[in-house]
Amino acid sequence: MNLKAYRFTGGKVSLADIPTDADGGLTRADAEARMVTLGARLAELQERLYAEGKRSVLLVLQARDAGGKDGTVKHVFAGVNPQGVRVTSFKAPTLQERAHDFLWRVHAQTPPAGFIGVFNRSHYEDVLVPRVHGLLDGRGARRRLEHLVAFEALLHDSGTRVVKAYLHISKEEQRQRLQARLDDPQKHWKFDPADLAERELWDKYTAVYETVIERSGTKRAPWYVIPSDHKWYRNLVVSQLLVDTLEDLDPQFPPPTFDASKIRLK
């Protein structure tokens, strides 16, 4: 699978021109069959990364409400050893967090060597939400994005490969997913009435997301705009993205510090 079409490292972005319902010419059955192979490969590479203990991967997931962040984590990492994966979600900052710079709470959650870290909602929330709601002006947003680019460069230089995925859904797909949460009593816990107010700001979020992708997509930490109306295709693309990233890192099992051939158990 060629992911270059979804990759952005700076330059103009128009989300309206990027399909949300692309399927790569695959059927759901095709994708699910490929997921089995990719899942096994991801588990193998994650074990090597953990054993090597020198580098890490940070997967950043951003999406609108009901965009599929939780589902992506659930399906992509289903076969991976949970000891080597850490998932963090950044919600509205607490009083203590507001007393510090906006990245204070983020740095402590980045993955240590040997781990895959997942930000399910990320440091970009501190640009998106305040900008949409008028709590941050254009200059303030630009400065924060500059800090984020520098922060991600630091992570890269320190051995953390940063991969950022925007899960791209249509407004109609979001409507259907939110309605499904209302229609099924077992999904009521997933519904937040505040999501309806945020939905009314769809166009504002679109504009800010475009600015974020344009200004913070870099060669060191690219953005991938992933068509996500089809959940099965979204899962496949994110899995392929992680496998490609880890294969590029090519982690290795460390050499033994002993001669195994000379050890015999009694």
Automatic annotation (TrEMBL):
Keywords: Kinase, Transferase. GO terms for biological process: polyphosphate metabolic process. The keyword Kinase applies. It comes from Deinococcus maricopensis (strain DSM 21211 / LMG 22137 / NRRL B-23946 / LB-34). GO terms for molecular function: polyphosphate kinase activity. Residues 28-252 form the Polyphosphate kinase-2-related domain. The keyword Disulfide bond does not apply. This is Polyphosphate:nucleotide phosphotransferase, PPK2 family. It holds the Pfam family PPK2. InterPro entries: P-loop_NTPase, Polyphosphate_phosphotransfera, PPK2-rel_1, PPK2-related. It comes from the Bacteria.
